[in-house]
Amino acid sequence: MVLKNKYTGLIERYKHRLPVADDTPVISLGEGNTPLIQLRNIPDFIGKEVEIYVKFEGLNPTGSFKDRGMTMAVTKAVEEGSRAIICASTGNTSASAAAYAARAGISAFVLIPEGKIALGKLAQTMMYGALIMQIRGNFDDGMKLVKEIVDHAPVTIVNSINPFRIQGQKTAAFEIIDELACVPDYHCLPVGNAGNITAYWQGYREYASSTESLPAVVASRPVMCGYQAAGAAPFIAGKMIDNPETVATAIRIGHPQSWDYAWAAQKESGGWFKCFTDQQILDAQKLLAAQEGIFCEPASATSLAGALHDLSEGNIPEGSKIVCTLTGNGLKDPDTAIQQCTEKPITIDANLDAVKAAILDRL
């Protein structure tokens, strides 16, 4: 007997809100439907009366939010007859593109900055069978090459300049509203290439304007708060920057491809962009893991660092309902996590007395 889930992925769940037909060949790994987790301990830890939820996108099939857009991008590429896809990546996009290409039975080509990609993401991309091209340059250099190569080779770009990527990613906003039965007051996101803040804003706007069996409570929109790493903060500088640097590799981007759309989301929602140091980002990552048991990659923690800062400064008032997007799983970058942990594993003899002594020493 073959068991069938009602929804096998986000395209099936939100087909009526996506540019697909009944006969579109859906390429899915069961993405979407990620948990919206209310933080129980951190509000007490910071002494604020506030509802903070994290949308943990690290539980998508390849461990990041990129799967939402990739299921749509690859589905449409296959529908249009494409036999190969290509992307530039800081890691998560390459892993996702390679996985969905494998699922579809087509080729994947990825350009990554040499020596500037977390090993967890590199391992994924290699295992999925993509051709990996390490360039002597950064993500922005890779993106420039990807946009040029389509004039010389039969490949489909699946970076967020592909409009179907945004279509898939907007479904995260739908899920949040469906689960909360309302729109959050503030939505906090890390910003790198800026496709995600663009997609969430599109999702909120579409849901707010819809009349399909929606409660009146969703006819509002959140304030969109975009947070960047201090060493890779073009939205703070107000201009593109060269040679961005940050430990948060997923947002190490100086030339965001969704520049205009992200500014529109910020302005239309009454939101803001801010930046934080690598240490502030890592502190937020560790706080989330130690206080709530949620392990996200460094770039993800930028959203929480921003939310906590703006709560402390009064920019986000107490009593607010906040959603922070966690874009990737902490296992994507284990080296960075281990390096910041001061307490290392201990080695003891394999006997009862040694185990007992170690436990009692801690209690």
Helical proportion, percent range: 40-55%
Count of extended strands: 10
| Distance from first to last alpha carbon | 52 Å
Top CATH class of the largest domain: Alpha Beta
Largest sheet: 6 strands, mixed
Structural class of the helices, strands and pairings? alpha/beta
Q: What fraction of the residues are assigned to beta strands by DSSP?
A: 5-15%
**Order of strands in the sheet with most strands:** 1-2-10-7-8-9
CATH topology of the largest domain: Rossmann fold
Instruction: Compute the number of helices.
Output: 15
- Count of the separate structural domains: 2
Query: Architecture of the largest domain, according to CATH?
Result: 3-Layer(aba) Sandwich
Q: What is the radius of gyration?
A: 21 Å
Overall residue-averaged pLDDT value: 93
Which geometry do the CA atoms define? globular
Please trace the helix and strand order, writing H or E for each element: HEHEHEHEHEHEHHEHEHHEHHEHH
* Spans where pLDDT lies below 50 across 5 or more residues: none
Describe the structure.
- By secondary structure, the chain is of the alpha/beta class.
- The chain has helices at about 10-15, 40-45, 65-80, 90-105, 120-125, 140-150, 165-170, 170-180, 195-210, 235, 260-270, 280-290, 300-310, 335-340, 350-360, and strands at about 35-40, 50-55, 85-90, 105-115, 130-135, 155, 185-190, 225-230, 270-275, 320-325.
- It folds into two domains: about 10-65 and about 165-340, Rossmann fold (3-Layer(aba) Sandwich), CATH 3.40.50; about 65-160, Rossmann fold, CATH 3.40.50.
- It is about 40% helix and about 15% strand.
- A six-stranded mixed β-sheet has the order 1-2-10-7-8-9, with helices on both faces. A four-stranded parallel β-sheet has the order 5-4-3-6.
- α7 (about 165-170) packs across α9.
- The longest helix has 15 residues, at about 195-210.
